[in-house]
TrEMBL record:
Record-listed 1-deoxy-D-xylulose 5-phosphate binding positions: 21-22, 57, 62, 112
Sites marked Transition state stabilizer: 163
Natural source organism: Parvularcula marina
Protein name per UniProt: Pyridoxine 5'-phosphate synthase
Active site, renumbered: 55 (proton acceptor), 82 (proton acceptor), 206 (proton donor)
One of the Pfam families matching this protein, by short name: PdxJ
Catalytic activity: 3-amino-2-oxopropyl phosphate + 1-deoxy-D-xylulose 5-phosphate = pyridoxine 5'-phosphate + phosphate + 2 H2O + H(+)
Keyword match Cytoplasm: yes
Enzyme class, spelled out: transferase
Entry GO MF terms: pyridoxine 5'-phosphate synthase activity
Lineage: Bacteria, Pseudomonadati, Pseudomonadota, Alphaproteobacteria, Parvularculales
One GO cellular component term noted in the UniProt record for this chain: cytosol
Function according to Swiss-Prot or TrEMBL: Catalyzes the complicated ring closure reaction between the two acyclic compounds 1-deoxy-D-xylulose-5-phosphate (DXP) and 3-amino-2-oxopropyl phosphate (1-amino-acetone-3-phosphate or AAP) to form pyridoxine 5'-phosphate (PNP) and inorganic phosphate.
Length: 260
């Protein structure tokens, strides 16, 4: 297990954001209105989710425009709008006015987001979007790899929040090679600590599940984890209520040093 400090005495709890994209994926596979991602969001909130994440992609492969409008109108927790930094998405986000927006890289041919933004290489474009969203009162996060260069670039362009891509940690954990797991965790912990020292709020997500979430939640600077695919997959077998409650328990236990 990756080793780190006990965060309980110094750092606050870590929130859970539930991504409901893949409820919409199931709906769209057959057409029609079922299952309803807004109902899933409401069930996740009832089970303890601190917020809901939804990614409106350019090709609308899962979440649709009307889903975003209904989520804003019908849920009573913060809505985190995942989006590419395009003029279309900027316009929709400003019109929707969600609590938060997470800027992510997007390629039409990918199955899911494959890595973090290159903030250092696209700072002028991202800085404009970060500024416009921030001026509208929307909390902006940048989805980045746990790379010191990208953390520094995020801070430089004025983003108040980063979300660290945990995909490499997920794949390392699947390898069951302790050295690889420790190295991947160290990179996330180092980036989170750097960001915290720069005054950024730190979130993380991608590939997190019941097996690996505790070690990420135990990182002292971590304030929010956004988890979707695993929770929706697990809910097929145990129900969304049970899946969300168990994830909340694991995160809470990790923050108070009760790692298993």
């Amino acid at each position: 297990m990756p080793q780190g400090p006990n965060p309980a005495a110094e750092f606050p709890p870590c929130r859970l954001g539930v991504n409901i994209d893949h409820v919409a994926t199931i709906r769209n596979a057959r057409g029609g209105d079922e299952p309803d991602p807004v109902r899933a969001a409401q069930l996740a909130i009832a089970a303890g989710a601190d917020g809901i994440t939804a990614h409106l992609r350019e090709d609308r492969r899962h979440i649709r425009d009307d889903d975003v409008a209904r989520l804003k109108a019908e849920i009573d927790r913060p809505l985190n709008f995942e989006m590419a930094a395009t003029e279309e998405m900027l316009r929709i986000c400003l019109a929707t006015a969600p609590h938060a927006a997470c800027l992510v890289p997007e390629k039409r041919e990918e199955r899911t987001t494959e890595g973090g933004l290159d903030v250092a290489g696209a700072s002028s474009v991202l800085e404009k979007v970060v500024g416009e969203l921030g001026n509208a009162g929307i909390r902006v996060s940048l989805f980045i790899d746990p790379d010191p260069v990208q953390v520094e670039a995020a801070h430089r362009i004025g983003a108040p929040v980063i979300e660290l891509h945990t995909g490499d940690y997920h794949h390392a954990a699947l390898s069951t090679t302790p050295v690889k797991i420790q190295a991947a965790w160290n990179a996330i912990n180092k980036a989170a600590t750097q960001a915290h020292e720069l005054g950024l709020e730190v979130h993380a997500g991608h590939g997190l599940n019941f097996t690996n979430v505790s070690n990420i939640a135990s990182i002292p600077a971590m304030r929010e984890l956004n988890i979707g695919h695993f929770l929706i997959s697990e809910s097929v077998f145990v129900g969304l209520d049970v899946a969300v409650r168990e994830m909340k328990r694991l995160i809470s236990d990790a923050r108070t040093g009760r790692l298993v």
